[in-house]
Design goal:
The structure holds two protein chains of two kinds.
Chain A: E1 2-4, E2 7-9, E3 15-16, H1 17-23, E4 33-37, E5 40-42, E6 51-52, E7 57-65
Parallel strand pairs in A: 1-7
Antiparallel strand pairs in A: 1-2, 3-6, 4-5, 4-7
Chain B: H1 4-9, H2 21-24, H3 39-46, E1 50-52, E2 55-57, E3 61-64, H4 71-81, E4 85-92, H5 101-108, E5 111-114, H6 122-136, E6 140-143, H7 156-168, E7 172-177, H8 181-189, E8 196-197, H9 211-220, E9 226-228, H10 234-242, E10 247-250, H11 252-255, H12 260-280
Parallel strand pairs in B: 3-4, 3-10, 4-5, 6-7, 7-8, 9-10
Antiparallel strand pairs in B: 1-2
Helix pairs in contact in B: 4-5, 4-12, 6-7, 8-9, 10-12
Classes of the chains: A mainly beta, B alpha/beta.
Chain lengths: 67, 302
């Protein structure tokens, strides 16, 4: 399981960031997306290889109106 | 420098701090607006570009995208404001969100300035800035580190720490800061590309509570000063420019106005008018009247 944007997801196991984004129906080359795993940035270049460990806290962020 | 006695006389007993011409002209001459009586030069003056960290902006109005009731109104307001640099926040992906903010901003041809709104520690602000760099492929960041949920005022020690870390990491850092000239100078010392002092708390619409400090900040630093937060209506934006600010950042004042597009237009005009007035050199304030019609030749009807 992982925590995705604060919510526990028992059905999502260990996998790459790229696969997780695909589950969220986000394009792998989507503009305006950033990913942090356990408080560290996962650079875009590492999305296809970085394996999200079990129990990880994953934040998937994008642009919102603000400021 | 201005004679302290002159300054004293500019502070009426009601406590409202007015800024005299001497104050306005007392700053670093390099920050002075050139002035000319040639109307074409005046036109050019209101369009003279602002340069921050090598990026040239023709508009001296920065627009926040927060608070607009719809993306359509945001787009229209951007066009009306003439702004070329708009802020965005970074938030969790909302799978149910309709319409893309980024598509709208791209269509309007504006540059993005991501912010770190919502961060209360240097650590969170630095991480958010790095995520914004990944998301938007820009190393510009409007750095906000908030110290109080109700006042939304900056947390000075955390802000300074975050600014230093981000500058060291190659960011162009634009910090939202208090109206403290000493803190502004410290932020520039660690390498910030501009300073964004508040006129009043975010979204308060209270205008510029301490114009004297904004003038002092303009004197204290040699980077662009952008009045950020507190603007409620066009006259606040004009005052910021008259005080010597290089640009004004507005969000709620436009987005939450009854007619955001009209207010965006008003802000655009106010920034230009204030810039022009700053360069024109206002008359000093006097306690008593000074007649503008000649005394000589007055008729005697007795």
């Amino acid at each position: 399981m992982i925590y995705l944007n604060g919510d526990p997801h028992d059905d999502i196991g260990e996998q790459t960031v790229a696969r997780l984004l695909a589950l969220l129906e986000l394009e792998p080359d989507a503009r305006g997306i950033a990913v942090a795993v356990d408080g560290e940035v996962v650079p875009r270049t590492g999305w296809s290889t970085f394996a999200i460990p079990d129990g990880a806290r994953v934040e998937v962020l994008t642009a919102m109106q603000g400021g | 420098m201005v004679d302290p006695a002159t300054r004293q006389s500019d502070v009426p007993e009601n406590g409202h701090v007015s800024v005299s011409r001497a104050d306005q002209l007392g700053g670093d001459p390099t920050t002075m607006v050139p002035c000319s009586t040639d109307p074409q030069a005046a036109e050019a003056l209101t369009n003279d570009p602002l340069t921050i960290a090598g990026r040239t902006l023709r508009s001296r109005l920065l627009l926040g995208t927060g608070g607009f009731p719809s993306l359509e109104l945001l787009a229209e307001s951007i066009r009306a404001s003439g702004s070329e640099l708009v802020t965005v926040a970074l938030r969790r992906v909302d799978p149910t969100a309709r319409g893309s903010l980024l598509d709208v901003l791209e269509r309007e041809g504006v540059e993005l300035l991501p912010n770190t709104a919502g961060c209360f520690t240097a650590r969170d602000a630095v991480l958010t800035a790095k995520l914004a760099r990944e998301a938007f492929a820009t190393d510009w960041i409007k750095l906000e580190v908030i110290g109080d949920e109700d006042m939304l005022l900056p947390d000075a020690p955390e802000l300074l720490m975050a600014a230093e870390l981000l500058v060291d990491d190659g960011f162009v850092v634009l910090p939202y800061t208090t109206d403290d000239p000493v803190l502004a100078r410290r932020l520039v010392d660690v390498g910030c590309a501009a300073v964004l002092p508040l006129g009043a708390p975010i979204g308060s619409g209270m205008g510029i509570r301490n114009p004297y400090n904004i003038s002092l900040i303009r004197e204290a630093v040699d980077v662009p000063v952008v009045l950020d937060a507190g603007v409620g209506t066009a006259s606040d934006a004009a005052l910021a420019m008259e005080l010597g600010c290089d640009a004004v950042m507005v969000a709620s004042a436009v987005s939450r106005a009854q007619d955001p597009v009209a207010m965006a237009m008003a802000m655009r005009g106010a920034v230009q008018a204030g810039r022009l007035a700053r360069g024109a050199g206002r008359i000093p304030r006097r306690t008593y009247a000074t007649a503008s019609s000649p005394h000589e030749g007055v008729a005697d009807f007795s």
